[in-house]
Amino acid sequence: MPWKESNLMNERIKFVARLLDGDKMTAVCRDFGISRKTGYKIYNRYKHSGLEGLNDLSRRPYRHANKLPYQVERIIIRIKNERPSWGAPKIREKLHREYPMAKPPAISTVHAVLERNGLVKKRRSRRYKARGTSLSDPKIPNGLWCADYKGEFLLGNKKYCYPLTITDYSSRYLLACDGQDSTKETFAFTVFEQAFKEFGLPKAIRTDNGIPFSCANALFGLSRLSVWWLSLGIDIERIKPGNPQQNGRHERMHLTLKQEATKPASFNFLQQQERFDSFMEIYNNDRPHQGIGMKYPGELYTPSSRTFFQPDAPEYPYHDKRILVTQCGRICMENLKISLSKVFAGHYVGVREIEDKIWSVSFMDFELGYFDEEVGRVEPANNPFIPKVLPMSPV
Known about the structure:
Distance between the termini: 55 Å
Low-confidence stretches: 57-66, 389-395
CATH superfamily of the largest domain: Ribonuclease H-like superfamily/Ribonuclease H
Largest sheet: 6 strands, mixed
């Protein structure tokens, strides 16, 4: 996931630059349309942490590959263009012979370079059909969080804002409302990591089947974000497509958010985020909620006792091997390169030989599928996330 500055970050940098040039705080805040309180908050974060302090958190991706030198990548592309029929193994060998003093990249890395530059003919994707999962109805805080993007809207500067929101199901507490300039997963990681650090981990998270919560071309519709949740011990729940009422409490909050904090829209991201922050304070601590007996959500919500942590690599004591999935989504086992899914890149899976040359693949407690040594890709097992149809009990 390449690092990318958001529009909000860019505006914060421009704001601080004006102050460093000698402009007065009052004048700069007036030009950006924000309060002096927000202005001093941004400037103090810069003085304390430099440019890094202008982010909500580090914008570095959750996982990233070792970057291949630009020159090596160009040589790989040149060899492929000269020998179109060659695959990654031959290109790697040719690279090694031409430059024996340099350590050659892995075959999977060469393949990733070819794929990234459109030099690999891709198989037709096996598209996942979303069906939804079992849905819980917890009565205590942090038993379930609900998350979604409120519909995008146009700011005064003609840039679209996509608010990512997170609520606690039982208390209706609004945990996050962060204006983003896209629904890309890079920024979603940041918002959820911030929420996990501040409020702890929920038992489950409920979303729809859209990006970045789900990926139609991955096993069982998993995404990098949902795989990360699973690695943290968080269950995933998905509503059925076309049934937003299954996330009705969250959708009702979105209606209030739209009425009170987006109409009319602010001019830029800084101004709009200030309105979101004000809305959260009122919604949580100053607005009686009919669905919880006219109490405030802040009166009912308490942070989770499950603190955020960087997960250790899972152990697979009942499997034959524990293997790290490559950045191009492969399981490399001896001379085999087995295609799994990029959403598991950087995670460990367990593989177990169940018959001669037939292997099963698991991620944590979930059985993902099977592969043999000839096909070279994982065929999915039964979806572990859809509702189970149980046989009728005898009368």
